[in-house]
Fold this sequence. Notes:
It comes from Hyalella azteca (Amphipod). The structure is a single chain. By secondary structure, this protein is α+β, with helices and mostly antiparallel strands. About 50% of the residues lie in helices and about 10% in strands. It folds into three domains: about 10-60, Roll (SH3 type barrels); about 215-475, no CATH class; about 475-610, no CATH class. It has a five-stranded antiparallel β-sheet with strand order 4-3-2-1-5. The protein has a three-stranded antiparallel β-sheet with strand order 6-8-7, with no helix packed on it. Strands 9-10 form a two-stranded antiparallel sheet. The longest helix is centred in the middle third of the chain and has 47 residues, at about 190-235. The chain is globular. The structure holds NADPH dihydro-nicotinamide-adenine-dinucleotide phosphate.
Amino acid sequence: MTERKFNIGERVRAKWPGSGLYFEGEIEDFNDIEYLVKFDDEDESKLAVKYRDVAALTSFKRSRSRSRGRSPTRVPKSPNKKTSKSPGRVQAAKRSPGRPRASSKSPARISKTEITMLNSTANSSESNKSPSRASSRRIVNSSASSSFSQNSRSSNEEKTRVTSLRQSPRLSSDEKSNDVKNLSAKPSSSSGSKTRRWASIKRALATVWDVLLPALTSLPLIIFIALAPLTMSYACTKKNCTVLEVPTFSSQVKQYYDIRAVAITLGLLVLHLVLSYIPVRSRVLPNGAKARTNGLVLLLVSCLLFPLAHYFKLNVSEVYTLLRPLIVSHAALGLVFGLALYIKSFYAPRSNRNPRIVGHFLPDFIEGREVNPRIGSIDIKSFFIKHSIIVSSLLLLVLVIREFQLTTKANYNNEFFVLAALQLFYCLDFLLFEENFYSTWEYTRQGSGYFLTGFYLTMPYYFIVNTRVLMMFRSPLPWYCIAGIVVIYLAGYILVRGANNQKHAFRTNPSDPNLAHLESLPTSAGTRLLVSGWWGVVRHPNYLGDLLVQLSLCLLCGFKHGLPWLNLFLSFASLLHRIYETERTCSLKYGLSWSTYTGRVKYKLLPKVF
Ligand code: NDP
């Protein structure tokens, strides 16, 4: 089996499907067997090319044959560059029996209209065509489609048909002869050497850029993920929780390290790992993988720690005093697991490799080289997100217990309890609908690297920022304000839950009678896109719902403290990034169907605004 040699963005020469000719282009994406190559023709055709038919630009220069003998794989320097081939030879190639006439056609002459994405209806009509007509077409596997995606790698239905590899009738005989002339004229040697020098300078610069840019962008992200929650905790002083002052870090070791914090961190992780091995609520996912939707069971068992601690006369609210050492131990664990997953990925099955890896340590360490790593029967990605949600819930309960202990009934901090209840509800909701996680972008496409381990393990400490703010600084609100905020929360919750449920149900069973009222678009990938219901309001209704929920949690804290709002801003930035990421992938995967969808549902996040 040919190994993959190139990464996204690399310049290569690739064999134009159906011909023996190689042309320059750029790697746009890849899956297990093919690259998606964007050719340098005027239409920037994107075609799937097998690994073995893609070569480095340099390898051609070295191996260019001087032989005058005709060879079907003889390579012109580029579609429009001049070669020493005689016109006769090009035409002879066209004449060779059994070879599609247009196979020698340069990419520059294949127009966009000739590359059509056909949906299932079109596929069936195609099958009725005469064999000779059908054979004059080339079928290229999933050029801009889901063979480049994770969850539908196995889907054979997705085909992009590149039509008219026969000569286009538009092409006059004059044009043909011009083209042949172009191919046959020889470049002057001085311009050739200049071009080569320029190309090697560009290659050297690209290599430096390739190494430096990922390092420059990845390092700050690693530092940010590791330090942000601790910095946030120091940003909360007795005066306020601000983002306007540089926090002063303590120099005392006990602020960062406490054996009890390490024991709690490791204890909870081991408990959840052990419980995950118990075959409770095992199910087979739509992609064939096995998973355990056992989050609620893990939470219930973890909650037994509270009565257990009470029995042993341990005061659980003291966990609050260990917050900083807990943050440090979770951040350190995130780094350790990030490294472990990075090393593990080298032994991962090829089918599970992340197509977005770039081949450099730092970016691949962050992004993750594997998409859905497993340890035995445990799916690591879903394990980490469940663990994170459960730790968040336990921390919230610790804060609630502490608040009960410190205040009297007459003096209850109502806003705090409302906030804690809404946050706990959001955690429970995730665990209750855990199955939906397996049809999200995060599960099906995001790599499992340090971003996942580092962020998920420290997420509980971002999550409780608002609760801590209200615990430290009361922010009394009239009841109607609290009621209004709860309404915003519920609107957001209904949106996020409704949209996620609708998509999950539709993805699991598109012919579900409960969804019969929804309109959908067929795609070349065999799946369908919802264009009505929640997914007809905006293209990311679940993100909008998520943002409304988070907005309501900030509003409860008032406007005096900047930290909760910084959290909201970070969430917004991450969702914005996700919007562009998912849309890029979907447009590659679904092509024409995605454009139809975006034409019909015009707004990404907020109707009439964005
Ligand atoms: P999504 O649940 O938004 O999934 C995106 C995928 O949904 C697409 O890749 C596509 O999958 C499918 N899809 C898109 N449009 C349609 C349509 N019209 N009809 C049918 N399917 C469609 O993935 P995420 O992982 O980004 O989000 C999951 C949850 O996590 C959300 O609730 C989100 O709010 C939350 N989240 C929160 C963040 C935060 O910072 N607070 C950050 C990121 C996520 P396919 O290719 O399989 O067709």
